[in-house]
Design a protein that fits this description.
mainly alpha; Growth Hormone, Chain: A; two-stranded antiparallel ribbon; globular
């Protein structure tokens, strides 16, 4: 039985650092759009709902649809090389967003970003689970997941600074390309450094897989059969975390525009302040969520990851309702600190929960099914649901903050209910998984 990772600790931590860096860049590239609502809407003549489709659906549609077939490749081929190719592709497509001259062109470039990013997380989760022992897995996945919030934070900081700098220079004329607006140049400047990250990924080793892994991969039918046998566990997990992702993205996608539109703050000022808040408190939250999951597991709680996520969700929901409704912008910014901490807290435990109950030879594919659900719901619909409420319920751009609060209340209530329902079936699945571990050639 495999009882420990088969790579040296130094190599494992180096690989984790590189994968985390790639994850950070993925979120810089996908999130940079959120700070440019005003300029893009003005230049392309878009409504909030149309802009939300660029932010969410354009990115999520192929990101989710390709996640499962790419995960099958990850379960049967070299994961390191797959990730490197994905980083290279999405970085070039981010730069291509800067060449777009229409809604359609920007939509298609965002689709390309999603296609490239689909290669990262299922393969990364699988590699991390093969490098770290169970007792450190929550910490390792929490640190990897912190790349989300480092990336979002950096996208706000860099995006605000670049837009401010480039706005002073005005439009730029380039041979063969033509006139580029400041928001277009921002995409190009942010996207191209990812090419270097792709090359850095090639410096990490492909870790040996657990002994139970089948070299040819496991048929998708077996994966789906395993999910059906444990349907209550996986369904409540997927739905609960999908609702949390919808809540979080419904706030995050519109957070910069909320402070600009509702409170009249300067775009670069908002980018710097929100970026620091997300970078510090978002990163701290996801790491602390993983640490709490590990702590509860050492205390003997079989449902430790779900229990840890519930604690974060219980704090998140009231903050998600209150923070956008505070009339003072600086008090609202202050409330965004615990909001970002609590919002990120459940997502380290979310991935840990799956790795602890999924056989090694299907981890990437199970992770891809999870990402399909949370990203189609959260990324694909989170920003759009908020925009639809603004455009068609309140029918007033100036009531964006009411839309954010409403989506938080509805999504958060559903998330807590589903995670409470997940506790008992998760304990059953974890016990059965541990009992069957010797037959699979794994350590319980």
């Amino acid at each position: 039985m495999v009882t420990a990772p088969q790579v040296a600790p130094r190599t494992a931590w180096y690989t984790l650092a590189v994968l985390g860096l790639a994850y950070m860049f993925s979120y810089i590239d996908r999130s940079i759009l959120a700070l440019m609502v005003g300029p893009i809407r003005a230049d392309l003549q878009l409504s909030d709902t149309e802009f939300s489709l660029l932010h969410g659906l354009a990115f999520a549609i192929f990101y989710t649809l390709l996640g499962i077939p790419i995960a099958r490749l990850a379960d049967r081929t070299n994961r390191r090389n797959l990730i490197a190719a994905g980083v290279m592709f999405w970085s070039l497509m981010t730069a291509a967003c800067g060449l777009a001259k229409s809604f359609t062109g920007l939509f298609l470039a965002r689709v390309g970003v999603g296609i490239g990013e689909a290669a990262l997380s299922p393969a990364a989760y699988s590699m991390i689970a093969d490098m770290f022992p169970r007792q450190q897995l929550g910490r390792a996945l929490g640190l990897y997941s912190s790349g989300v919030f480092l990336g979002i934070g950096m996208s706000f900081i860099l995006g605000g600074a670049l837009l401010d700098l480039l706005a002073g220079a005005g439009d730029i004329e380039l041979p063969l390309i033509g006139t580029l607006r400041p928001w277009q140049l921002t995409f190009i400047i942010v996207g191209l450094p990812g090419v270097l990250v792709a090359l850095l990924v090639l410096t990490v080793p492909e870790p040996p897989r657990h002994r139970s892994h089948k070299p040819g991969g496991i048929p998708i039918g077996e994966v789906l059969a395993y999910l059906r046998r444990n349907g209550a566990t996986y369904a409540s997990h997927f739905i609960g975390f999908s609702m949390l992702t919808l809540l979080y993205n419904g706030i995050l996608a519109w957070s910069a525009e909320y402070f600009i539109r509702i409170h009249g703050l300067d775009r670069s000022q908002v980018g710097a302040m929100l970026g620091i808040i997300i970078l510090v408190f978002g990163s701290a939250g996801v790491v602390c969520g993983g640490l709490l999951s590990d702590y509860l597991m050492r205390r003997g709680y079989a449902d430790a990851p779900i229990r840890a996520a519930l604690i974060g969700a219980a704090v998140l929901v009231p903050l998600g309702v209150i923070a956008p409704l505070v009339p003072n912008p600086y008090l609202s910014l202050l409330l965004f600190c615990p909001l970002m901490f609590a919002g990120s807290f459940p997502f380290g435990p979310a991935t840990t929960a799956l790795q602890l109950i999924s056989p090694a030879n299907m981890r990437a594919q199970v992770s891809a099914v999870y990402l399909f659900c949370v990203n189609l719901t959260g990324i694909g619909l989170g920003a759009t649901v908020t925009a639809l409420v603004t455009d068609f319920v309140f029918a007033d751009d100036a009531k964006l903050h009411f839309s954010m609060a409403a989506v938080s209340a509805a999504g958060g209530t559903a998330a807590i209910a589903m995670l409470l329902l997940a506790l008992q079936p998760y304990r059953r699945t974890a016990a059965a998984f541990a009992a069957a571990a010797p037959q699979r050639g794994e350590s319980p």
